[in-house]
Write a structure and sequence with these properties.
Distance between the termini: 19 Å
Number of helices: 8
Shape: globular
Strand content: 5-15%
Oligomer: single chain
Helix content: 40-55%
Radius of gyration: 22 Å
Order of helices and strands: EHEEHHEHHHHH
Structural class: mainly alpha
Largest sheet: 2 strands, parallel
Length: 266
């Protein structure tokens, strides 16, 4: 798989293959080309000579690096020119990723208070719970496609990942009333088990995009640090120790310096 910017497309797709074929006639190209458009800063090209750039040290820290990576995946120029600005980066951190944090922390708190900190086994299944499992599987397949050579798109992969969390939040809210109904305890366990399945899928799906976050999430879910890409959505094994409530996965970004100056971050 070969990644390059639009301004180098002639060299990588025409000139270099032609030179290789002349030098090595027996060579048969097997390359997936992935070109990106320009990523601008406040509407203008990045320029270190003009100090029109964002320096890595201004926005990157051990706590913020995955938030920056996610924002770049979400906004990079793929099919058209895109624009970076600090306000949009802060918005991604304060809205999208903060919602992930709230959901995971709230789910962990429920498991701590009602299930002794252990993943519950699923009980009764309603039609809409089975539909949510199907919805998760659709997200998994979509993300797999967006990260594959033939349809590679970090923009769409990032959108699908956020959609996965939004689906899980909506599902949890729609079934929250079950917790107050003693006779619905079996069905409520299924709700919690399915949200844990969504969290596990989130950890797997973000491993290529946000490896630090994914590693911390896997650890909080009590699963192995190294996992293969899932062939299907699976429930967290019942009895697994879960510590989501003890984690804060995202924090505020580093304070920006006063001068204009994500070339290094990109």
């Amino acid at each position: 798989m070969h990644f390059f910017g639009y301004d180098n497309s002639f060299y990588h797709t025409i000139m270099y293959p032609a030179l290789y074929s002349l030098a090595f006639p027996e060579w048969k190209a097997s390359i997936s080309y992935h070109m990106n458009e320009f990523y601008l800063l406040d509407g203008l090209k990045f320029s270190t000579s003009r100090q029109h750039a964002v320096w890595g040290k201004e926005v990157l820290s051990p706590d913020s690096v995955d938030a920056v990576r996610y924002h770049l995946c979400l906004t990079r120029g793929e099919v058209k020119r895109a624009d970076f600005n600090r306000e949009a980066l802060a918005s991604t951190n304060d809205t999208i990723l903060a919602e992930w944090d709230r959901w995971l922390h709230g789910l962990g708190d429920v498991i701590r208070r009602r299930h002794g900190g252990l993943a519950p086994d699923a009980g009764d299944w309603s039609i809409d719970q089975r539909e949510f499992l199907h919805q998760l599987e659709t997200r998994r397949a979509r993300i797999e496609t967006m990260l594959s050579p033939d349809a590679f798109s970090l923009n769409q992969a990032a959108q699908e990942v956020d959609g996965l969390v939004r689906d899980a939040v909506r599902f949890g809210e729609a079934h929250s009333h079950l917790a107050a109904i003693p006779s619905a305890s079996d069905r409520n366990r299924t709700t919690v088990a399915l949200q844990l399945a969504a969290a596990l899928l989130l950890a797997d799906a973000t491993t290529p995009l946000m490896p630090r976050f994914a590693g911390r999430l896997r650890n909080a879910l009590g699963v192995a640090a190294e996992r293969r890409w899932p062939a299907h959505v699976s429930l967290l094994p019942p009895g697994t120790k879960v510590s989501l409530e003890a984690c804060r996965f995202f924090s505020g970004l580093k304070e920006a310096h006063t001068e204009t100056g994500v070339e290094n971050a990109a």
